[in-house]
Amino acid sequence: MRAYEIINKKKRGYVLTADEIHYMITGYTIGDIPDYQMAALLMTIYFQGMTPQETTALTISMAESGEQQDLSGLVGIKVDKHSTGGVGDKTTLAVCPIVAANDVPVAKMSGRGLGHTGGTIDKLEAIPGLRTDIATGEFLQIVASHGICITGQSAKLAPADKKIYALRDVTATVDSIPLIAASIMSKKIAAGADRILLDVKTGNGAFMKSLQDSQALATAMTQIGEGCGRKTLAIITDMSVPLGNAIGNALEILEVIEVLRGQGPKDLTTICIELAANMLYLADKGPIEKCRDMAVEAIASGKALEKFAQMVEAQGGDKAYVLEAGRFDVASVIYPVLSPRSGYIASMDTEGIGLCAMGLGAGREKAGDIIDYRAGIIINAKTGDHIAKGQQLAILHASSQRAAETAALKYLACLSFCDHAVAAPPLIHE
After folding, report:
1. Would strands 415-418 and 343-348 be described as parallel, antiparallel, or unpaired?
2. In terms of Cα–Cα distance, which of 133, 149, 379, 350 is closest to 251?
3. Gap between the Cα atoms of 305 and 310, Å rounded
């Protein structure tokens, strides 16, 4: 078997076998196949596409390139959740405690943020003392004891994906549905859950801007999950408007706590309940209607908030930040963004708003950048809302007056206004 022959076969539109795909992935991971040959294969995949069988074989090979988490020692059906990311998407931090409060173990590995999207691990680390770099043995012990643990992704998990993604990033092959799907699902498969729920975002703040592309990605990923023997569901949710009102790490933790207290923004709470209900459904807790009721009850009873506090304490954090108000440090500059006119908000450049928050220090432009956990944005008006001239559109949390003034201009540039009523986009598309 030769790399040249496999590249040429795919270039001509033929279907690769699982053995051929495994040969390429394994060879590239250990360094036997050079960058230029893997880059050639990636470009042929970009133009020729892959069948569901090829994409599944690619996913399995990438998952098997490193360590695979063994969750068999945990009692019950383990359900994982993945979001394709967006602005203000802190759903994992609310959904997982809701699910764990209903006796479904949640052993979750999450990532950091880069660019306009926030990362679950960065948000958690806004809680003083909380650890996300947890060894496998302790990770499993926390889940066994408390029903939930959220940790950072191990570098040993699907190393082929990390190496291939770096190559895709410099060869213009990032936006390929089979390659995106295999990248995401290889880590989900390696993480060891029995069943998988996918939250696929769509809209101008999502990686997939169009509903058609989001549908294609959701289909590809569910086919992979089923092909790997994991029952998999996907929900397509909106990201043409930031989710919730808070953007920024400590601000988003506070909003998660509000959701778990039953006092969160309606849009975020609705999405969290729907995602939690579908995870409970995947865990065989009953029909979807019953599972929605279970999710609502976990919030109303206070069990979900207590489960979150237990997880924070088990991971070394101070649970007082969850249970008591006013614990988090506040940014040195709190700066209002005022509306330049009356009318309706016609649309929001959600990706631009995410970049605005990043500019305040809430995110990182490149890996290794330092995050200001206090920085961020509180949104007071969204698409479809009627506003008056001079009304407060948002509040910026910044480290300096100059940073706030610069960000305010950028934020206003992300909004468009009109004089007629505009409907807010649907929260759930499919």
Report:
1. antiparallel
2. 379
3. 9
Q: Is the pLDDT of residue 115 over 70?
A: no
Task: State the catalytic residues.
Answer: 82, 161, 168, 183, 187
- Per the document, the length of the chain is 430
Mean pLDDT of the chain: 95
For residues 399 and 386, give the distance between their C-alpha atoms in angstroms, rounded to a whole number.
30
| Model confidence, pTM | 0.93
Write the secondary structure of 86-117 as one string of H (helix), E (strand) and C (coil).
CCCCCHHHHHHHHHHCCCCCEEEEECCCECCE
CA-to-CA distance for 183 and 55, rounded, in angstroms? 10
Say what percent of the chain tops pLDDT 70: 99
Q: 293 burial class (0-12, 13-18, 19+ CB within 10 angstroms)?
A: middle
Please write the tens of the pLDDT for every residue from 124-179: 999 999 999 999 999 999 999 999 999 998 778 899 999 999 999 899 998 899 99
Distance separating alpha carbons of residues 311 and 296, to the nearest angstrom:
20
What are the Cα distances from residue 427, in Å, to 27, 98, 199, 207, 271? 43, 20, 12, 17, 7
Nearby residues of 424 by Cβ (< 8 Å), 6 or more positions away: 241, 382, 383, 384
Q: What is the pLDDT of residue 286?
A: 97
Cβ proximity of 74 and 105 under 8 Å: yes
Which residues, 6+ apart, have CB-to-CB distance to 321 below 8 Å?
127, 128, 253, 312, 327, 328
